[in-house]
């Protein structure tokens, strides 16, 4: 009886119904589909299970903020407790769920030395530090680069070690002149790394050994996307003492210098360059006076001014992602590029105010992790 009364009311309203065998009224499939489409069009949620059993979005997925052309700000998450002393730590991130931090070595007083240990970031917290079993080299490890969660390399002025999934290899001496020292390091894939020194050389690791190649000029930064593509960035000055950017490119067998590009303004003596390549057709390089050059796979652009023209510091670091976005550390400021437009990014705000982060590292999937005085912070720049 209740079914017929309910059916009559729906018929009077012009809604076709029929009764099911349990005595209730049921809207036919066409009506249910139409109702779902109508709900979707007006933007209301469609519940496929009781509301009491639904988890919130933050419970289903960790919070993330992605830059879009209409939204040029990203949100920092943190702080998270960091079990290392950030002042003597090297950091390299592979993805949102894996960063490796190597800490220890000579202390600030250059007399005491801390044991070498490492810790891993899993996307939400840091693991308890684990001793590496290595003797800290003179000067400590100055560069760290990870290709995967099971292949990383660390270099000191003249020594190197490899991380291969919870195991560190014994340190080995690099094939460098006695007065030379490694300046920067990039490991894009398992079994391949490239580093630059202070004398205009490149040191390449492949087939299990390191070899020494000449760049011809002293570079300050290197970035590789594969064993067949690396770029080293070099700050130079022309006859008018103006800053000139130049690059050397590695094709898997040899380095080829790129002619100096259109000059910027000012004296590069106190500045440096940093380059990051997410692909063989996408690189960004920053130089003195907070200027940026872009590479599209064929040529480098003219310099773009993105900062306050500080000639004394230059670009401290640059990270680019597969999402065609980059994070640049210019002077003491952060900027994010989206569709060739650079936008300032505030430092994270901690318990005692803004937190300058060091070290800071970003992965190719656009996730960055940095260590501050209050702990570690993460951000997604796309």
Could you describe the 3D structure shown?
With 382 residues, the chain is mainly beta. It has 2 domains: 48 residues, no CATH class; 315 residues, YVTN repeat-like/Quinoprotein amine dehydrogenase (Methylamine Dehydrogenase, Chain H, 7 Propeller), CATH 2.130.10.10. The protein is built from 3 helices and 32 strands. The strands form 9 sheets. It has a 4-stranded antiparallel β-sheet, with no helix packed on it. A 4-stranded antiparallel β-sheet has the order 4-5-6-7, with no helix packed on it. About 16% of the residues have low confidence.
Describe the structure concisely:
This protein is mainly beta.
Instruction: Assign an overall shape.
Output: globular
Mean pLDDT: 77
Give me the count of strands.
Answer: 32
Compute the gyration radius: what is it? 27 Å
Give a quick account of the main beta sheet: strands, pairing sense, barrel closure.
Answer: 4 strands, antiparallel
CATH names the topology of the largest domain as Methylamine Dehydrogenase, Chain H
Domain count: 2
- Relevant CATH superfamily of the largest domain: YVTN repeat-like/Quinoprotein amine dehydrogenase
Our measurement of the CA-to-CA distance between the termini, rounded to an integer number of angstroms, reads 60 Å
Helix content: under 10%
- The helix tally amounts to 3
Structural class: mainly beta
CATH architecture of the largest domain: 7 Propeller
Low-confidence stretches: 18-72, 265-270
Strand-residue fraction?
35-45%
Strand order of the largest sheet: 3-32-31-30
Which class of the largest domain in CATH terms? Answer: Mainly Beta
